[in-house]
Amino acid sequence: MISRVSSVLVAAIVAITLVADAPRPAAAAPPAGAGDIRLNEVQAIGTHNSYKRELSEPEQAEYDAIISTPGDYDEFLAYSHATIPNQFGLQNVRGLELDLFGDPEGGLYAEPMVRQRLGMGPLPDPAWQQRGIKILHIADLDYETTCVLLVTCLGQVEAWSDANPLHVPLTILLELKRSDNRAVAQGGVVAPAWDAGALDALEAEIRAVFGEEDMITPDDVRRPGLTLEQSVRQAGWPTLRESRGQVVFLLDNDPGAIRTAYRAGRPNLEGRVIFTNSRAGQADAAFIKRNDPRGANLAQIQELVRQGYLVRTRSDTPLNTVRSGDTAMLEAALASGAHVISTDFPEVGMSARYGSDFVARIPDGPARCNPVNARPNCDSKRLERRP
Description:
The chain is α/β, with parallel strands linked by helices and 387 residues long. It has 15 helices and ten strands. The strands form two sheets. Strands 7-8-9-1-10 form a five-stranded mixed β-sheet, covered by helices on one side. The chain has a five-stranded mixed β-sheet with strand order 3-2-4-5-6, with no helix packed on it.
């Protein structure tokens, strides 16, 4: 075990060092002052399922029983995150992922099936009974969270941002979820659909916390006479001088019914808050998600970055990555130039319980100059400033 752990740690450190020291190609844009570096010339670490906490052992066992797969929870879901303020303040995280479930009347997820079957009663936090969008992983099955209400989670982001106003832009990836079919088949709750009304309600909750001056929205990026895609490719994203202290909302869901409903009558996301996960060539294409940076995807992500799209990828998948000791995904993520690299292990020691020292961190601090498209005068140490 000791030799395997050591090899994992050494491989990860070497991989990060090599990528950090690799020469960057010259950017197409002319040299400019540090304040003119654009937000898409920066790379930062985000967390995956940023709110998640583990169930107790009895609840984990009941989860396995409900889905008829012994050991499934321990194999894939046994990881937890620090609170949002601690991720930002202590772990150098600059991106979050939040899973959203509609709850317009309140109380829909207050007594999950797992707890019902164990006779544990409703979840004790009174926020579960309140109206409003909830943050959890799987309705009825995996529900422990550091903040129950979306507005509470966003309030924590807003408070930290206000206290640290010179941070690089924070990305908040939103996955709009539905109930798990395995739970529904056994009498679990049916989450409301993400229809036009629900999407408008989501925007209202976001705007209840963040003002226009606190966010970078599609309207802030789009130029007159151009589509949103043409704008990011031809005119570029805002500079750090313009965008420090702000947040960017991104839709995690793959192109489909939710994206269609969200951009109905708004092909360029006019008046919207969230950048959709789109595809190159589409009018709304400013953000593109590529979860796996390995293999042929590496060159594809690098090209998307060069073209001006904002890209998110992942450095690990729970919990196979830390148990296998394979750092290939981490190495590829760093080299890809993806602007947000999501991990479940942003801090040293989080993977130790699995006999590993795996950690996904940016070598130069909270953010670094993008290894694919940053201009030559970019200085990682100057990207984020203290008040």
